Amino acid sequence: MIYVDNAATTKLSKRALDEMMPYLTENYGNASSLYAFGQKSKEAIENARAVVASFIGANPNEIYFTSGGTEADNQAINSAAYFGALKNKKHIISSKFEHHAVLHTLKKLEREGFEVTYLDVHENGIVRVEELKKAIREDTCLCTIMFANNEIGTIQPIKEIGEVCRERGVIFHTDAVQAVGHIEVNVQTQNIDMLSISAHKFHGPKGVGVLYCKQNVPLRSFLEGGAQERKKRAGTENVAGIVGMAAALKEVMINRETAAKHQTMLRDRLIDGLLKIPHTKLNGDRTNRLPNNVNVSFEGIEGESLILLLDDDGICVSSGSACTSGSLEPSHVLLAIGLPHEIAHGSLRITLDASNTLDDVDYILKKVPEVVSYLRNMSPLWEELELGKKEFQIK
Amino acid sequence: MALYSEKVMDHFRNPRNVGKMDNPDAVGEVGNAVCGDIMKIYLKIENDIIVDVKFNTFGCGSAIATSSMATEMIKGKSISEALKLTNKAVTEALDGLPAHKLHCSVLAEEAIFAAIKDYYDRNGIKYDKKIFTMHSHDDEDEQKD
Fold first, then answer.
1. How confident is the model at residue A132 (pLDDT cuts 50, 70, 90)?
2. Binary contact (B58, A312; C-beta < 8 A)
3. Does any CB of chain B come closer than 8 Å to the CB of residue A340?
């Protein structure tokens, strides 16, 4: 099996698992207990906090462990919004292609009377800082823009966005779930007030993440309960998960630059190879994208069929077609970069990790054209395009 | 658990009657690219019997599988028998579809009805228009473009 859907989730690192095991077995003490056995867990959590903090340029006391990226996004956005509302600031700025953990939280806030401006992400999948500047108002309390997009991998001008927000006194949150462990993330130099992390996107375990919240930026708790995480996140800590996340992060960060170089090389080979298939386009900026992300659309075919057939060839990939989204609409990300519905239906996302090889890439480049051509042969849409009854949208 | 039943995957992987047909007696095309599924069906009809059938489908796994199964279910049948085919029967023959995929099975039923309507129209055969109104979906508009 060739697993190239690492934006969905990644394989748990052996190192992380090894470091987790004691906390799943003999070291089961509650970190809130006063005796030494409990304090062992407490110590493990604090060590992990320091590790995570060090890799994003934060202080340990700015790190809050959560159940994952979704919870971190929810808490950051709701918190900044409700604190804003106290000062009569009920305007939020975001982008059109955020993750649903952000978009659905914003929709909920809109129902509660907040106003949200969704910045355009243009054809290249990147927000424009000038447009952000224009969107900021007296009553803007929060700007939330993802670090790198989960579907098309485009990297946003985070540092510049953070700078503008700082100048204008707007809290800046970024969903960095796809960025951490892959590209440079530093909350200090990049002017970030709040940031979300998910462990399972960098070979850590599922069900654990981080909310970074800068000192002096107020943070609200949304779970009633104990005093864990300095009263900002109640509930007995997921000690093994937290330890595993820190171990995985340490491992990816040590090899990050080498891994990025390797993945960029494979990514570019894939892009070049896939674009040789006629009437195919790359989605998102060619260079300003994550080292591991490839996203292309093939005209005349539908993505779910493509994925199922590639699965038969042992290749795990994903698509932004309606049939893979569980709704009747194709991916909001692909629509946000201006793709017509029929082109969004025919998309394919490949997301690599450091373990992928040239052989994997060459196998993918052998199989994908076969499957695309097979599906096009049975597609009445392709027939019409070929006969000239319909115009190709991808030249 | 797999996304689809074994039968769905079998018809998806090895679709029956896939392809085009020279000089068909009837053609039906339904669906649209925006929604992500289009089915085109060709019928060869002799003495009111569907002696051959071919299809082309642009769509997801369940759209292709239901297309394949539906063509199997009408091949060799009379037109009046084919008109009794329902998307429910096709779905059942495939051992079911996930709930959010049931709408895909409507495509095949609609394509067959569109083809039979085409056959009636081509041959000046009178019919009760009501038979087809239930199956017109919203493809009236789509056929214009």
1. very high
2. no
3. yes
**Residue B87 to residue B74: CA distance in whole angstroms:** 12
Query: What's the rounded Cα separation, in Å, for the pair A312 and A310?
Result: 5
Answer yes or no: same fold for A14-253 and A256-386. Answer: no
Q: Which tokens hold the place of B89? A: 């029967």
Is B57 in CB contact (< 8 Å) with chain A? Answer: yes
CA distance A75 to A97: 19
Q: Are A309 and A319 in contact (CB under 8 A)?
A: no
Q: What is the residue extent of each domain of chain A?
A: 14-253, 256-386
CATH fold for the domain made of A14-253: Aspartate Aminotransferase; domain 2 (3.40.640)
The whole-number average pLDDT for the span B110-123 is 96
Residue B144 confidence (pLDDT): 33
User: Minimal Cα distance from B63: which residue of A?
Assistant: A305
Classify the C-alpha dihedral A81-A220-A211-A223 as positive or negative: negative
Pairwise CA distance, residues B72 & B119, whole Å:
19
Query: What CATH architecture does domain A256-386 belong to?
Result: Alpha-Beta Complex (3.90)
Identify whether B104 is a catalytic site residue.
Answer: yes
Render pLDDT for A47-72 as a digit per residue (tens, 0 to 9): 999 999 999 999 999 999 999 999 99
Query: How many Å apart are CA A80 and CA A74, to the nearest integer?
Result: 10
Question: Which residue type does B133 have?
Answer: T
ipTM for this model: 0.90
At A220-272, the pLDDT tens digits run 999 999 999 999 999 999 999 999 999 999 999 999 999 999 999 999 999 99
Shortest Cα distance, chain A CAs vs residue B20, angstroms: 9
Residue A140, sorted as left (phi over 0), alpha (psi -120 to 50) or beta, turns out to be beta
Partners of residue A362 on adjacent β-strands: none
> What is residue B135's predicted lDDT score, i.e. its pLDDT?
61
B40 → closest Cβ in A304, A341, A380: A380
Residue A57, CA distances (Å) to A63, A119, A185, A237 in order: 11, 28, 8, 23
Based on the residue annotation, tell me whether B60 is a catalytic residue of this protein: no
What distances in angstroms separate CA A347 from CA A95, A265, A342, B143, one per listed residue? 21, 22, 9, 26
- Cβ within 8 Å, pair A378-B19: yes
* Predicted TM-score of the model (pTM): 0.94
Q: Name the token pair of A31.
A: 């970190």
* Contact partners, residue A318, CB within 8 Å, separation at least 6: A5, A7, A8, A307, A324, A348, A349
Domains and CATH numbers, chain B: 6-138 (3.90.1010.10)
Report which of residues A300 and B144 the model is more confident about. A300
Q: Is A316 on the interface with B (CB under 8 A)?
A: no
Let me know: does B143 contact B103? Beta carbons within 8 Å.
Answer: no
Q: Report the gap between the CA of B38 and the closest CA in chain A (Å).
A: 7
Query: Within 10 A of A129 (CB to CB), how many other CB atoms are there?
Result: 16
